Amino acid sequence: MFNKILMPTDGSESAEKAGEHAISISNVSGGEIIVLYVIDTSYLKAIPQKELRDQVEEQLSTEGNEAVEKFKNRLEESQCEGHCKNVNLITMIKHGKPAEVILKTIDEEGVDLVTIGKSGKHGLERLIQGNTTERVVRGAKVPVHVVA
């Protein structure tokens, strides 16, 4: 069925919902979940001061670590109520443009399924399908499970 499930996260509520679906699918299929947080470097390039750019990157790294740890802890805690026993988890934090990094990770890791939230945590993306999600759906060569 699904041997590798990619679950991109930005720490948003939508990503958390997608994570619940990834857990359920993984528990049934026995496939591993790759939780991926992408630090969007396009924002960093727009900051002219190196010191400020470094501070923002450090903050984004902290957010990424928190997002993947939150998902990891969800598996390890009782919130799964005993139905997460078959789930194997890998966490990754990468740099780049989120959609491009997600698509590249699909190929590099041999992913069978992407489970992604409908929208991100930034601005108007909360109201409409996220730009990153749309680009992944259009560019992926594997099924993409979009969770609202």
Describe the structure.
The longest helix is centred in the middle third of the chain and has 27 residues, at 50-76. Mean pLDDT is 85; it is low at 123-129. This protein has helices spanning 13-29, 41-45, 50-76, 98-109, 131-139; strands at 4-8, 32-40, 88-96, 113-117, 144-147. By secondary structure, it is α/β, with parallel strands linked by helices. It starts with a strand and ends with a strand. It has a single domain (4-147), classed as Rossmann fold. It has five helices and five strands; from the N terminus they run E-H-E-H-H-E-H-E-H-E. A five-stranded parallel beta sheet has the order 3-2-1-4-5, with helices on both faces. Helix 1 links the parallel strand 1 (4-8) and strand 2 (32-40). It is 47% helix and 22% strand.
Radius of gyration from the alpha-carbon trace, in angstroms: 15 Å
The count of β-strands is 5
Level-2 CATH architecture: 3-Layer(aba) Sandwich
Q: What does the oligomeric state look like here?
A: single chain
Succession of helices and strands:
EHEHHEHEHE
Estimate the strand proportion.
15-25%
Average residue-wise pLDDT: 85
CATH topology: Rossmann fold
pLDDT < 50 stretches = 123-129
Number of domains: 1
Walk across the major sheet and give the strand order. 3-2-1-4-5
Q: Give me the number of helical elements.
A: 5
Portion in helices: 40-55%
Question: CATH homologous superfamily - what is it?
Answer: HUPs
Large-scale geometry: globular
* Gap from first CA to last CA: 23 Å
Largest β-sheet summary: 5 strands, parallel
The structural class is: alpha/beta
CATH class: Alpha Beta
